[in-house]
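quick one, 357 residues, struct below
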Amino acid sequence: MQTLKVELADRSYPIHIGRNLISDASLILPYLKRKHVAIVTNTTVAPLYLEQLSQSLQAAGVTVIAIILPDGEAYKNSTTLNTIYDTLLQNRCERSTTLIALGGGVIGDLTGYAAATYLRGVPFIQIPTTLLSQVDSSVGGKTGINHPLGKNMIGAFYQPQLVLADIDTLQTLPAREFSAGMAEVIKYGLIRDAEFFDWLELNMASLMQLDEDTLSYAIFRSCQNKADVVAKDEHEQGDRALLNLGHTFGHAIENAMGYGVWLHGEAVAAGSMLAADLSRRMGWLSESEVTRIQNSFVAADLPITAPKLGVERYLDLMGLDKKVENGKIRLILQQGIGKSVITSDYDAQKLKETLAL
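---
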């Protein structure tokens, strides 16, 4: 097992990365206020890992309540959130009850937001079971739900007590979901870690074959990058926004196509290619660098062409983004591989040319 820490003073917490962590209650017990937990999971993950986690906790004397939600981005909404609240209230859960998110990014975001708001705040633990959630959404305290008008527009910054990334869970992950997670892994190389991007180019085939050592390193290095950024800018007032490379375009794609039609990582990959194209038009990226970026997504079985929504539709949806400031869409663009910038100082005509592709 490898461990790193998200340094947030008295709210710091560890990220454990390794095998068979779900069965090890000793990793969780120190973070429980009392031996009473509610495990939030979904219909896909529950048959795979709920019993394993529940039994390990119950053997340690922990009372377990299970909340099983429908699976998919389409259910990341206020209706599903209320299902969590209903069960917590029906079971008279107190502030000392810990919520455990067992699943991917949707479960993590829903559980975290429920924890942030139930009784004005209860502890929660992240046990991410997808690559995307292990390297990105489980770390950093972003929680929330979607609204019909925009993705992740309702939520809170609320840090977990602990993150357990059990790489064994990736063996049951569908190939498409694994590829979606690779979009976020590649992102770290693109925005701030050129050396890691070089490593990914050399090791992509091993990663796609789920080689254990290669995978462990990629997850650790990704979490290291995320933890470093979050420690410096917890509430996204500055450089943390760089983690959203491709996301402003990507969220527009997810919204327009219908939540869940494009997986989040697929939309991020296509959105990152739009960002690369605009960066090239601005003279910040060379043709060869754009080709390297494209090849990395192709090697990870990710889309590199965004759907043709029309320029005005893109601009309308991109205007419903948390990074909009004074009515101006701010974008994360690249000034080289491993160097990114958040800016509203781009050529609007060039943006339209990119969106018209």
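The mean pLDDT is 96.
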